Amino acid sequence: MLLSKIFLYEEPSVPEINFDSLANFLQDFFRVPVIKRKNIFHQKGLDVAHDVARTRVYNYRQEFQIHDPTTEEVQFEFESFVNSAETENIVLYDGFELQKILTGLIGNDESESDILHLVLTNKLTCTFDNSDYRYHGRALIGSNPAIISTTGIIEAPAKPREYYMDLMKNYGIGLNIDSIKEKYKGTYLEYHDSRLDKIVQGYALQAIFYYIFGESFCDLLDCRLNNAHWQRDLLYSQLEFGRLCAKHEKAIKDWLTLNYSKKMALL
Ligand SMILES: [Zn+2]
C-alpha cells in the first residue's frame, strides 16, 4: 500500500506524549505529510456518544453484543468528548466496533486508501480472543483508521510475573498495593509516565507498517515492531533497543523508494 498522507488525531489527556514531535517523527520516517488533528471526538454530539456507548463491553467473557446504552452512559461519553482527561473509570470498548464508529466520522473526501488515519485515544480498546474466550486489552487496533489506545499501552502488556505473585501473597496478610507498586516502580509503565512519548512512536510505527504491508508485528525483541506481551519487553524493544531489525529496515527502505517514485509519477 502506498501513502500520500497521514492524519494524526491527538489525545490531549496524555500531555506526556509530545504531539508535535510524534508528527515530525512519522513525517521524517515515512516521508509523507503528517497532518495534525484535534481529538477525533472533538465537538461530536450526542448521536456519536450514543454510538460509542454501544461499543462498550459488558461481559468480558462473552463475544460482543450490542446493548442499548442508558442515558448516563451516553452522557458519560459526551462528557469525555468535551474533556477526555476527566474520565477516571476504565471502560472497556470492543476495538473493532469502535473502529466502525470512527470510520463513519471520516469524510468521503478523506477516505481514499492512500490516506491513513491514525487515532490516539485514552479509551481502552479490547478484542475478544477465541482461544481463551475472553476479552483482552489492546494497545493497537490496526487497519484504517488505526487506533492507538494510550490506556491499552499501560494496561495490555503484563507487568512482571513477580509483581502479580507479590500481590497474591499480600492478599493473605492485608493488601498494600502501594508498597508493591513502589517495589517494582520503573519496570512497567504508569499513567502519565514520561516514557510514553517514545513508546507511542513504536505503536505508531506498528500501525503504519500494518497498513502498508499487511503485517504489523515482528517476532524479534530487537525491533520496534515487536508485539510485546510484557511491559519488560515493551520497554526493551522501544527504549533500550529503539530501532527496527535488519529485515524491517530493508522493507521500509524499499517501500520509501517505491512510494517516492509513485509520487513523482503523479506530478
Ligand atoms: Zn522486525
The number of E-state strands comes to 8
Order of helices and strands: EHEHHEHEEEEEHHHHHH
What count of domains describes the coordinates? 1
How much of the residues is beta strand, in percent? 5-15%
Overall pLDDT: 94
Rg computed from alpha carbons, rounded to a whole number of angstroms? 19 Å
Widest sheet, order of strands? 2-1-4-8-7
Shape: globular
Q: What is the end-to-end distance?
A: 19 Å
The CATH fourth-level homologous superfamily: Collagenase (Catalytic Domain)
Short description:
The protein is 44% helix and 13% strand.
Structural features:
267 residues, alpha/beta, five-stranded mixed sheet, three-stranded mixed sheet, 10 helices, globular, binds zinc ion
Q: Can you give a write-up of this model?
A:
- This protein is an alpha/beta fold.
- It has a single domain (5-266), classed as Collagenase (Catalytic Domain), CATH 3.40.390.10.
- The protein is 44% helix and 13% strand.
- The protein contains 10 helices and 8 strands.
- The strands form 2 sheets. The chain has a 5-stranded mixed beta sheet with strand order 2-1-4-8-7.
- α2 packs across α3 and α8 (196-213) crosses α9.
- The chain binds zinc ion.
